[in-house]
């Protein structure tokens, strides 16, 4: 079971970008389905304009027990005081249900990602000392490279990784050590035809195969320039997007747990615009959570 500072969020959860676009009624219906299906946690990013902490507050307000994880709340949109105040309110209003995932995101001009995160954490820790509030703000950091993983180990409850391989999970666990939380996102696709599956997967991976920090991550893992060019080699695509029948996908997701992940946040892709992912989440829950 995945545990963050004493909070058990289970071994598997749901991750989706879809909540950046749904109306409030759709958010309520979908998040309640996640809770009813038995998933351990719900993870969502901050990319489409919805403010991360108020978004988390709404999702917590329409559910009863499901932990909600900001994955991630970016540094640039909020000063540390705003982040701290919002996270403190959520910790008070919804005890043991909110996890603050922080990430550099698009970065801060003139500051390295590591320096930016250290500075932000310094400010959050100073505010916590001034408030002297006993309720914990559980925080994890988006981390890929060794130094950010070390920072997550030393200054947070753990790390959250995104679009990584099972080998990366094993390497991250070695850096984090045995007592630090490691949550891993992984994309999956309900498609059994290899050509069609890879076509959909490549369309999904375009942003990640064209950004320097993602390319650096893949090259550190041993993929060549040829693997990461032209939409990605079959080997890279198959490692980053697990496709096939739900039972086969479930087996491959469990490989992250065997490699050292405490929790895997599953992102189901290949859902047509206007179509709900809820039925696919349910099918996967039947084979993964039983």
UniProtKB/TrEMBL annotation:
<dbReference type="InterPro" id="IPR019922">
    <property type="entry name" value="Lucif-like_OxRdatse_MSMEG_4141"/>
</dbReference>
<protein>
    <submittedName>
        <fullName>Putative F420-dependent oxidoreductase</fullName>
    </submittedName>
</protein>
<dbReference type="InterPro" id="IPR011251">
    <property type="entry name" value="Luciferase-like_dom"/>
</dbReference>
<dbReference type="InterPro" id="IPR050564">
    <property type="entry name" value="F420-G6PD/mer"/>
</dbReference>
<keyword id="KW-0560">Oxidoreductase</keyword>
<dbReference type="Pfam" id="PF00296">
    <property type="entry name" value="Bac_luciferase"/>
</dbReference>
<feature type="domain" description="Luciferase-like">
    <location>
        <begin position="24"/>
        <end position="107"/>
    </location>
</feature>
<dbReference type="GO" id="GO:0016705">
    <property type="term" value="F:oxidoreductase activity, acting on paired donors, with incorporation or reduction of molecular oxygen"/>
</dbReference>
<dbReference type="InterPro" id="IPR036661">
    <property type="entry name" value="Luciferase-like_sf"/>
</dbReference>
């Amino acid at each position: 079971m995945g545990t963050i500072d004493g909070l058990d969020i289970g071994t598997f959860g749901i991750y989706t970008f879809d909540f950046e676009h749904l109306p409030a009624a759709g958010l309520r219906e979908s998040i309640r389905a996640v809770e009813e299906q038995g998933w351990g946690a719900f993870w969502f990013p901050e990319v489409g304009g919805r403010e991360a902490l108020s978004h988390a507050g709404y999702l917590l307000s329409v559910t009863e027990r499901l932990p909600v994880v900001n994955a991630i709340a970016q540094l640039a949109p909020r000063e540390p005081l705003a982040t701290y105040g919002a996270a403190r309110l959520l910790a008070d209003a919804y005890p043991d249900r909110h996890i603050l995932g922080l990430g550099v995101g698009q970065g801060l001009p003139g500051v390295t990602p590591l320096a930016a995160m250290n500075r932000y954490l310094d400010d959050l820790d100073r505010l916590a000392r001034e408030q002297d509030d006993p309720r914990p703000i559980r925080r994890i950091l988006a981390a890929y490279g060794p130094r950010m993983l070390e920072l997550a180990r030393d200054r947070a409850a753990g790390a959250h990784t995104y679009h990584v391989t099972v080998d990366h999970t094993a390497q991250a666990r070695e850096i984090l050590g045995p007592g630090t939380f490691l949550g891993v996102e992984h994309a999956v696709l309900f498609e059994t035809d290899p050509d069609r599956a890879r076509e959909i997967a490549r369309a999904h991976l375009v942003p990640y195969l064209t950004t320097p920090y993602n390319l650096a991550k893949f090259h550190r893992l041993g993929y060549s320039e040829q693997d990461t060019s032209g939409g990605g080699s079959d080997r890279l695509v198959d490692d980053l997007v697990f496709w096939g029948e739900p039972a086969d996908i479930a087996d491959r997701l469990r490989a992250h747990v065997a490699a050292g992940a405490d929790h895997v946040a599953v992102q189901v892709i290949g859902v047509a615009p206007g179509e709900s992912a809820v039925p696919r989440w349910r099918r996967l829950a039947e084979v993964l959570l039983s």
